[in-house]
Structure formats: C-alpha cells, structure tokens
Amino acid sequence: MFDKIIQFSLRNRIFVLATAALVLAYGGWVIVKLPIDVFPDLNRPTVTIMTESGGLAPEEVEVLVTLPIEVSVNGTPGLERVRSSSGPGLSVIYLEFEWGTDIYRNRQLVAEKLALVKEQLPPNITPIMGPISSIMGEFQLVGLVAESPNVTPMDLRTTADWVIRPRLLAIPGIAQVVPIGGEVKQYQILLSSEKLRDKNLGLEEVQRNLTHLSSNTTGGFVNLGNQEFLIQNYGRVRTLDEVENSVVGSTMGRPVKANEVATVKLGARTKRGDASIDGAPAVILSVQKQPGSSTIDLTRTIAKQLAEIQATLPAGVKIRGDLFKQADFIEHAIENVQEALRDGAILVTIILFLFLLNFRTTAITLTAIPLSFVLTAIVFQAFGLNINTMTLGGLAIAIGELVDDAIVDVENVFRRLRENRHADSPKSAFRVIYEASSEVRNSIVFATLIVVLVFLPLFSLGGLEGRFFAPLGI
Prior knowledge:
- This protein is an alpha+beta fold and 474 residues long.
- Helices cover 52% and strands 22% of the residues.
- The protein has helices spanning 2-11, 13-33, 58-73, 103-117, 153-169, 193-198, 203-211, 240-244, 258-261, 295-312, 326-356, 359-366, 368-383, 389-421, 429-455, 463-473, and strands spanning 46-52, 79-87, 90-97, 128-129, 138-146, 174-181, 185-191, 217-224, 227-233, 247-251, 254-257, 262-268, 276-277, 280-289, 317-325.
- Strand 13 (276-277) and strand 14 form a beta hairpin.
- Helix 3 (58-73) crosses helix 4 (103-117), helix 12 (359-366) runs antiparallel to helix 14 and helix 14 (389-421) runs antiparallel to helix 15 (429-455).
- The longest helix has 33 residues, at 389-421.
- The protein is elongated.
- The mean pLDDT is 86.
C-alpha cells in the first residue's frame, strides 16, 4: 500500500503540490477560527437547582426543601451523582449526569421532576434551575468604580444591575453575570407602631395593601356603540411622592395614606457581602460563560461592549475590565508554546543544515511541520475539539517525532541520489526516489506506531483525569 502511495505521488507531482497548497490555505483559515480555552472540556453535564427560602435556618432548609427535591430527582435517567448544600435561606443541589448526555434533555427531565415536587415544599418557595455554565465559567471580572464623590455605591449598583448586566447577558455565549457589592436600591416604608395604633390599623392589613402597591391591573372593557375600549389601571409607582400618597388602609371611612403611618425613603437592601477595588468601594460583575464558548472571542466581544457602554455612562463612573481575564493566561500560554515551537524550528533547521549541508533538503524536511499543523486544525474542527494548554503541549511533543520521520525519509533519498550520480549506470531520479523512500517506509511507520502506542493508555483513564489528558494523546 505504501509503495502505491509513493508511486502515485511521484506520477502526480503537480496534483500533490496543489492539494498540499489547498490544505495549507484551508487549514490556515480553520486554525484561526478554532475556539481557544485554558483547559480541555471538563464539563460533566450538570444541572443546578437553587431554591430561596427566606427566614429558614440551614436545618429547616435541609429537611423542608433540600430533602424533598433530592428524593424527587433520584432515579432520573442518566443521573450519576447528587450533591447538595443547605445554608441560611438557600438550598443548592447539583445533579451530575453521565458524560455525553444531552444537557438540554437532562434539564427537561429535571423540570418534570420539579413540577411534581412543588406541592411538597413550603408555601411561596419555588425551585429554579441555574443557567448552563462551564466548570471554568468565571472567565472575567468587570469592575465599576466612582471617580467622583457625587457618585454613591447605590448609583454604581443601579448602573451595574440595569445598564451593564443586561448588555453583557445579550452576548451569545454568556451564561450569567453576577453583580457583587454596592448598595441595592429599595423603596423603604418604615412603619410606626404608634401611628398605626392612632389610625386603628393592623400590620397585616397594611402589609396586604402594600403587596399590591405598585402594579398595573386590568379593568376589563366597555362597549360604546359599535366599539370596544379596554380599561387599564395604571398603579405602578415611580417616585417617593407616589409611594407616600398611596392608600394603605382606612379608618372611620377615611383613606389612610402611607406617609401618615410610615416614613418613606430610598435605602439600601441589607448587605450579604461587599466589593472594593484598590481599597475603594466598588461593584464587581462576575461574568460566566457557557460550555464550548471561546474564551478569547467572548473577552474581545465584552471589551467592545464595555467601550460602547462607557461612552453612555454619566461622568464619574468608570468601567474596569482588567481586574481578571482568563484570556490573559490563555494568550500567555499560547505565546510560550509559540516561542518553543519557533525555537525548536530554528534549532531543527540549523541541525539539518549542518548534517545535510543542503538548503533544498532542509527546506523539504521542514515542510512537514506547517502541513501537519494545519491538518491537525482540520481534524480538530471535524471532531469539535478546541485549542488549549494540553493540545498545545501535545503538539509540541509531536514535533520531535514529526521532524524525525521527515529527516529519515528525506536524508535517505538525498543519500541515494548522491550515490546514483556517481554510479556507472545511473537510474532515473524518480526511480531512485521511489526506491529510497520505499526502503525506509516500513521502519518509519513501525517507529511511529510504537510512539502512538505509548499514548494509548491515556485514553483508558476515567473521570476528570481522562477528560484532562485525552486531548494530549489526541
């Protein structure tokens, strides 16, 4: 078979060269489009269930919320492990499914289970599924700082929640954006027990009326002649004055407004954490990505979005996109491998020339490196693989074997051609090349197969170890 391949290549030299050029061009285009990440895909299909249960202690959360949900989801097809964490007012359950299962099918199965368990949970407690995110999900931190004393932490958090976060979530590949720090803006109604007693109002009545304080409702419709008109009740409040003048009850047939029994003001929600940059109060947004998304491309897209957002922000508010970027580590790793490949190629070129003392032979040998790289990129694209530190390390290791095979073949051809020139009855150059290449072909193939066998045990590793080291072997 190998002899036929050599004969075909020698007879169709122009075709082989043209094909190599096309592969080089197409592979070069593919290699710049491949997704780049820090590590291989280590994401076991995982569904996260989060349930807020305000006011419950961890023990109550465990018994009343976490346990019923765990019992309900057990037995889901493909489910391998269930982990949970119960804290003050919060239950988080992680459902890990088999490798290779469809995450969207898994989420559908879990949603069906949650619909059945909802009746077993305490009132007003609804479990929700978290977004699909990567194990290396938090790939960038974006900061928001105040450069003017007129900008308060509440202003920063409001800008982060209602301006920056929606814009970032609109980027394809972003799973979640979590703001940290600042002050969450609230309309606070601070009731006075003395004023409630004077107005003869109960706390439950006031609370019930305040529940529907800011909502638009329908009034049905009215028929006038041959036309039908919708009736709407606009009740959504927008200012403190509207809150103060809202009716919260009645006494002796007279309506009681909010400002008669309470102090209404803008305030900050109780903090459960804070953030700072360079020792000053700030808001930090944790940006998480979806599995399979390119960290480099997402980082560049976020940078463009942040630049556009910065131009629309009020004076004194500055966006900091350089707090933490996983892309920096990836780029440094790629630069290190590129430097190693460059230095290796230079050393190989020097050694080849010193031993062969022929520029043409050295150049022919070195063509194996770019051709093999672009072919690797095409294979990566076909199998959905990405470029990461492990695959780059594997490529660096493979260069030694790659150049070694090329040297053995080309050097033997070069030696046989030189001997043929001094022979009494020289053969044709193509005949000499065919015989010289065929002479070492089996040895080269067997030597390469032995190296391949060394890496095969990597594919037998299970769990995260197998997912981590398999790309090196590939």
